[in-house]
Design a protein that fits this description.
348 residues; alpha/beta; Aspartate Aminotransferase, domain 2; Aspartate Aminotransferase, domain 1; 2 domains; seven-stranded mixed beta sheet; four-stranded antiparallel beta sheet; 11 strands; pyridoxal phosphate; amino-acid biosynthesis; EC 2.6.1.9; histidine biosynthesis
Length: 348
């Protein structure tokens, strides 16, 4: 049975987190002489001489309204990559523990495992890009702490069968991390709604994709309060800067605009699929619940080089397991998509 104390690293259990100046008082204040900041301000039009809110309270409250989950169940990081790294550092003993990843998938899980000296056991997806539950069960041992599942998956674009994820959640004694970076483009509902059902569930989301804030580096983790408390204890004290917090708040007030972009992206995705499948060098286009499509071709390297020479950059995934011969193409604006299609018409 899952128990957070059975998987948490001993040094993290005993860790006394860094106590920042902003953590050590309650209430309102007007004179701040506690953090060795520059009292005169910043050499900018806007003032950034004060440290940011270490727990991003205002941003979490707005996210709480949008996502329908209490703020205490939200972690905000410097991109989702920080949340991934903190999960490794909190729950995986270097050189001892292992995690399970299910390629083809987001490459940062493997990179974080390597950085933290944690074995990443690969269980390939099936030919239709779904979980191999039997293979995952065989790979789990007493030192398996985390299972990473990207849904909708990158680079394949498809959503993972919900029932299969729930099977893992119900039977695995470690954490199941569901990375929903592309959930805004999907027909599948978010796993955030299942947080009260599964204590070992962590859901990752981001403001980088549908929200168009990749340059601000705002990632989110949604989990039980006890998991969020661990992540807050391990993170750097001021991990999300003040400008990112302010701009995120401004963006989160524009839900209707973002929803309009999502609808347009889905229309353009359908347009690309219909047009690209007509090219004779295209063997298959896989079903997508994301803002990109994975296209299997007869000559991925040749097409990629041809497009680069024309100033068009797509992602060559032909060396990724189960994606041989495939290009990942992001859905652009109508004008960008027209340029892509017109250029592909000239490929010999």
């Amino acid at each position: 049975m899952y128990n957070i104390n059975n998987i948490l690293r001993e040094n993290i259990k005993n860790l006394t987190p860094y106590s920042s100046a902003r953590d050590e008082y309650q209430g309102e204040a007007s004179v701040f002489l506690d953090a060795n900041e520059n009292a005169y301000g910043s050499p900018l039009d806007q003032q950034f001489n004060r440290y940011p809110d270490p727990l991003q309270y205002k941003v979490k409250m707005r996210l709480s309204e949008i996502k329908g989950v209490p703020a205490r169940n939200i972690f905000i990081g410097n991109g989702s990559d920080e949340a991934i790294d903190i999960l490794f550092r909190s729950f995986c003993n270097p050189g001892v523990d292992n995690v399970i990843i299910v390629p083809p998938t987001y490459g940062m899980y493997q990179v974080s495992a390597n950085i933290n000296d944690v074995e990443a056991r690969k269980v390939l997806l099936t030919e239709d890009y779904q979980l191999n539950l039997e293979g995952i069960a065989e790979a789990i041992d007493k030192n398996t702490k985390l299972i990473f599942i990207c849904s909708p998956n990158n680079p394949t674009g498809n959503s993972i069968n919900r029932e299969d994820v729930e099977t893992l959640l119900a039977n695995f004694n470690g954490l199941v991390i569901v990375d929903e970076a592309y959930i805004n483009f999907s027909r599948q509902k978010t796993f955030i709604q299942e947080l009260t059902e599964y204590a070992n569930l962590v859901v990752l989301q981001t403001l980088s994709k549908a929200w168009g804030l990749a340059g601000l580096r705002i990632g989110m983790a949604f989990a039980s309060e006890e998991i969020i408390e661990v992540m807050n204890k391990v993170k750097p004290p001021y991990n999300v800067n003040e400008s990112s917090q302010q701009l995120a708040l401004e963006a989160l007030a524009n839900v209707d605009q973002v929803n309009g972009w999502i609808r347009e992206t889905l229309l353009q995705r359908d347009r690309l699929v219909l047009a690209i499948k007509e090219f004779e060098f295209v063997l298959d286009i896989y079903p997508s619940d994301a803002n990109f499509i994975l296209v299997k071709t007869t000559d991925a390297n040749g097409i990629y080089d041809f497009l680069v020479n024309k100033g068009i950059i797509v992602r060559n995934r032909s060396k990724v397991e189960l994606c041989e011969g495939s290009l990942r193409i992001t859905v652009g604006t109508p004008e960008e998509n027209t340029i892509l299609l017109d250029t592909l018409k000239t490929f010999k």
